[in-house]
Amino acid sequence: MESRILSLSGLNASRLNNERDAWIYLPPSYDDLQSLRYPVLYMHVGQHVFQSRKRSGETWGLRETLDGLIRNGEIQEIIVVAVEHKQNEGASEYFHDQCAYPIQMLGEQYEFFLIYELKPIIDRMFRTLSDASHTALMGSSAAGLATYNIGMRNPDVFGLLGMLSPFFVHLDEETFVEQKQYRPHKPNPGQKLWLDIGGAEGFFMPIHVRSVAEELLSSGCVQGETLYFYEEPDAAHAETDWGRRAQLPLRFFFGREGVSQRVDLFGPDTVGMEGASATLNAVVTLDNGLMYTDLEGGYTVDHPAILEVTPEGRLHPRKPGETIVRYQNRNLQASVKIAIVEKLSATVTVEVEVSVPDTTPEDASIHAVFKLSKVRKGLYRGTARLPRGVCFQFKVSRGYEMEEADDQNRPVPYRRLNADRDQKVSYIVVNWIDLPAGEHTKGELS
């Protein structure tokens, strides 16, 4: 028995005045066990769920993930409905009534399509368990925000919400002004919520998603029962990273309960009495493969007169010195040494210089963490203040799907920039993935 992918074309979204496709994952037993009905997971931006339409080839690769989890008995079999996103509409359909950008906010119209036009078709065509407790909604970035809005507004439809890197807060790259893009919702009885974020997503900062998780816990969610939050230390804001950790909410929604097996403690080694705030990230791994960040941890400090640590991991320096912070959760233990100094600036200055190939258009707009200015043909440079500790996994780009490539027009690995100090970095772009391969720039930048 093997899984299969079906395609549904021309699905009408009447209030959005457009049509779109959807791709349906049917689990291995679907054709043979005709009496069996299945939970359903609805996913946004469906064109990247099973395969990619991007030049870079990035995809969630969810079919392979599901097949492996099901084959190993780690989750029950489910149906997945991957709903196409209309790129010409931008992200408009993922925002309800708050957005930092000057776009139409068509979230309610998209919500209507999912609930009243698409879901009845799916429930009619396939053997689904159509009640809320067996119906999940999942998305990332702006689609993660849409999952929050649509799911929290309709708990009678979607009982399981997977929000990966949700775009809750927009951080202005120049002024650092934060603008909320959501209205807080109270937890709904019976719903299970998954929220996560990567530690290398740049201006999509972990604190923004963590704060929403804390709001939900204070409003009635129960960690480990109705809510998990996870900060993956090295993950980027990218399809491959979301695909890699999609197995975590799948285990939470459709797998067995687990028992804590180990803990890893991440955090800064130095904090300031003044300046940037900081948190610890206690990542607990369960024996069912699930991982989460403990927001209700048990911390003790060897010298509490110089540092306080709250259960959610926030660090409150009291006076300069050095101490050991210890985490304990039943039989799990971890520790970290932290130095407290008088002042640690909230921002650092980073200068970025990029050399590009001759094939680069003269009017190119080069972006490497932030937008760079043209110095001369082939050379771009920029300087910016960045929040201390923010980390970026990125590729140099000229715009959407116009990223750097190797000399054979193949995708290159992500670069990494950790804004932990004032620094200057230089990069060489060999080629652009959307342009013919050309002679690559030789030598290093001075």
What attributes does this structure have?
globular; 6 helices; disordered C terminus; 4-stranded mixed β-sheet; 446 residues; 8-stranded mixed β-sheet; alpha/beta
Describe the structure.
This protein is 15% helix and 35% strand. It is an alpha/beta fold and 446 residues long. The strands form nine sheets. The protein has an eight-stranded mixed beta sheet with strand order 1-2-4-3-5-6-9-10, sandwiched between helices. Strands 12-19-18-15 form a four-stranded mixed beta sheet, with no helix packed on it. Strand 18 and strand 19 (332-344) form a beta hairpin. The model is unreliable at 439-446 (pLDDT under 50).
Q: How much beta, percentage-wise? A: 25-35%
N-to-C terminal Cα separation, in Å? Answer: 59 Å
Percent helix, as a range, is 10-25%
Q: Give unreliable regions as ranges.
A: 439-446
The largest sheet has its strands arranged as: 1-2-4-3-5-6-9-10
Q: Report on the biggest sheet.
A: 8 strands, mixed
The assigned structural class equals: alpha/beta
Assembly classification: single chain
**How would you describe the shape?**
globular
Quote the average pLDDT.
Answer: 94
- DSSP helix count? 6
Radius of gyration from the CA trace? 23 Å
Total strands: the figure is 29
